[in-house]
Structures are given as C-alpha cells and as structure tokens.
C-alpha cells in the first residue's frame, strides 16, 4: 500500500531503494522468531535458543543499517535541502535508540 | 539439525521457571515485528520504523536475559555438579554471541 503522492511530498517519504529487500528480511526475521518459539515449546537447549535469538537480533541490526543508510541518502539529504529541522531532530532520536 | 528425543533427555533440559513468560514475550515480539512489516508496507516514516525495530531488539535482549538467568540457575549449576564440561563450553559460546 503506497502512500499517495501528496503524502509523499509532506512526509519526505519516497520510493525507498531497498523496500522489497527490507520486507523480505523482516519476513525472514519473523519466520526465524517463530522457529525460536517452537524451540522453546519443544524444550530445546537454552544455549541453542539463545544463539538463535542472537541471530535474529543480528538480522534486525542488519535491517536497521539498510533502512538508516537509505534514510540518510534520501530523506535526510532532502530534509537538509528543505531546512526541515524536525527531520534532523528525529534522526538524533533514532541514533539514540539504535546505538 | 533437530536433536532426537533421547538427546533432549540427555541434554540437561528441565521445566524452566519462566517458559510461559518467555513464550508470551516471543509471541509479542513476533506480533511487534509483523506490525513493523506493515509500517514498511504502508510507507511509514523511516525514523518510526527504526525506533520500532530498536524496541523489538530491546524485547529480544530482555528475553535473552530471562533465558540466560534461568539457564545459569538451573542448567549450569547442574552441569557444574555433574562435571559437564560441554555445557560450560556452550555457555562461553552463548556469551560470545550475546555480548
């Protein structure tokens, strides 16, 4: 469901270069987490469960990097050109949460 | 890669104190990640998506802590009593992945 053209203009959203890749990776992370849940249900070894949770977390970090780079290349460049201070403040908040 | 039933018995598994809580938290994390996917599909702002991914990652860290503490209290204490060197080596591997 793509946002309408007007919304794209207002919220500096845009066709992201990596949207399909991000969606595929999110689907894989969801599937991975469902398999972790089955491992816990089946009483699998704690170590194995923890290693798989760490792998999902790594996948989420990787997805975050893709989105953040895309965001920097498109939204933030646009925000600076337009003097959109709010977008830059939001970026600071995001960096605080991510790192 | 699934261990057989006998192997599960051999591998110091047990009724974990927090299994139900862990399963509930995993279900919530899966639901959260599905909502993140919908956000990306709907073209929501990158910052909002990144903040929600960071929240899921935080939830996974929290789940890992619960499992690791449970693992330390039950499996590892048992492993030390039994002189199960393999379990202790696995713990080192898990710590490497988690931290």
In words, what does this structure look like?
Two copies of one chain form a homodimer. Chain A is an all-alpha fold. Helices cover 81% and strands 0% of the residues of chain A. The first copy, chain A, contains four helices and no strands. Chain A has helices spanning 5-10, 19-41, 46-82, 85-98. In chain A, helix 2 runs antiparallel to helix 3 and helix 3 runs antiparallel to helix 4 (85-98).
* CATH homologous superfamily classification of chain A: Metal-sensitive repressor, helix protomer
- List the secondary-structure elements of chain A in sequence, H or E: HHHH
CATH architecture of chain A: Up-down Bundle
Distance between the termini of chain A: 30 Å
User: What is the CATH class designation of chain A?
Assistant: Mainly Alpha
The proportion of strand residues of chain A reads under 5%
Low-confidence stretches of chain A: 1-13
Helix proportion of residues of chain A, in percent? Answer: over 70%
Within the CATH hierarchy, at the fold level, what is the topology of chain A? Methane Monooxygenase Hydroxylase, Chain G, domain 1
Output the radius of gyration of chain A: 18 Å
Oligomerization state: homodimer
Q: Sum up the overall morphology of chain A in one term.
A: elongated
**What's the β-strand tally of chain A?**
0
Number of domains of chain A: 1
Largest interface: A-B, 51 and 49 residues
Largest sheet of chain A: none
The assigned structural class of chain A equals: mainly alpha
Number of helices of chain A: 4
Overall average residue pLDDT of chain A: 85
